[in-house]
Structures are given as structure tokens and as C-alpha cells.
Amino acid sequence: MKIILTADVSGLGESGDIVEVKDGYARNYLLPRNLAIVATKGAQKQVETIRRVQENRRVRNLEHAHELKQQLQNLDAVTLTAKVSPQGKLFGSITSGDVVAAVRKAGGPNLDKRSVSLRGHIKSLGKHVVDVQLHPDVTANVSVQVTGEQ
């Protein structure tokens, strides 16, 4: 059965791909979960227009991602304050939501916390580098200074 994928399916294809699958897989898995639609001539034309719009949006998003990266690199100091024990250890750890709030407080752009990668847990005071995935092709590095308060 020929189907058009409406979402990314691992091992099968990306959204908008026209693929050939077995009838049972399409009827029992893909179609009920709205991961695909049956391929007809009208649906194929619709997919082509959707792809063109997505390609234009992707280019605009790439340019916007480069602008955001430039804004993040121009930030002076991103500082986080966390509660510290008398021995100098953090209570808990710094989360990606904390980093997003600190970037916003420092005058940076509004980021999605899911785009922030901490390179492990931040459980100590000092300077840490955090990756921000702005676009599949654009990643920015932000330096975060963790200071303590008692």
C-alpha cells in the first residue's frame, strides 16, 4: 500500500515521504495513529505544496537561528545563583530551565529548555559551558557562571 507519512517514523521515513508498506502495517499501525494517510493524486499534490512551504520556513528558521546564536554569543555574563551548603556544595543541581531563566535575565533571547544540553549534571560552583541547539545545523555555546548563596 502506498502511503504518505504525516510524521517522522523511525526506520521508515520523514514527514511528507511517500513510501510503500504492507497493508496490515498501514491499516493497523500507521493510519490509526495518524502517522500517515493513503496516497492519492490529490494528497500527493498537497504534500508537494506543504514541502515547498516547509523548505521556505526552514531557510527562514536557519537565518533566525544564526541571529539567535549571535545574540547568545554577545551576552556578557550569564550568572546563576544557587543555594550552597557551608562546605561549598550545591543543594541539588542546575537544570536546563534554570539556564533558560538566567539567559533571559541576562538579556538574551527566550529559549526552549529542551534545546539546552548541559553536558552532564552541573553540581558545582564555577564556570560551565552549555550547548544550545537552535536548529539542526546551528548550535551555540553559552558560558554560565554558577555562584553560591547561603
Please, could you describe this protein's structure?
It is a single chain. This protein is an alpha+beta fold and 150 residues long. The protein has 2 domains: 2-66, Ribosomal Protein L9, domain 1 (3-Layer(aba) Sandwich), CATH 3.40.5; 75-148, Ribosomal Protein L9, domain 2 (Roll). The chain is 34% helix and 27% strand. The strands form 2 sheets. The chain has a 4-stranded mixed beta sheet with strand order 4-7-6-5. A 3-stranded antiparallel beta sheet has the order 2-1-3, with helices on one face. β6 (126-135) and β7 (138-149) form a beta hairpin. The protein starts with a strand and ends with a strand. Residues 13-40 form the Ribosomal protein L9 domain. Keywords: Ribonucleoprotein, Ribosomal protein, RNA-binding, rRNA-binding. Belongs to the bacterial ribosomal protein bL9 family.
Distinctive features:
four-stranded mixed beta sheet, 2 domains, three-stranded antiparallel beta sheet, ribonucleoprotein, Ribosomal Protein L9, domain 2, Ribosomal Protein L9, domain 1, 7 strands, alpha+beta, elongated, 150 residues, Ribosomal_bL9_bac/chp, 3 helices, Ribosomal_bL9/RNase_H1_N, Ribosomal_bL9_C_sf
Shape, per Cα inertia axes: elongated
CATH architecture call of the largest domain: Roll
Structural class: alpha+beta
Question: Could you give a short account of the major beta sheet?
Answer: 4 strands, mixed
CATH topology term of the largest domain = Ribosomal Protein L9, domain 2
Tally the helices: 3
Largest beta sheet: what is the strand line-up? 4-7-6-5
Rg (CA only): 22 Å
Low-confidence stretches: none
CATH superfamily of the largest domain: Ribosomal protein L9, C-terminal domain
H and E order: EEHEHEHEEE
The total beta strand count reads 7
Q: Roughly what percent helix?
A: 25-40%
Number of domains: 2
Q: How far apart, in Å, are the first and last alpha carbons?
A: 65 Å
> What's the CATH class label of the largest domain?
Alpha Beta
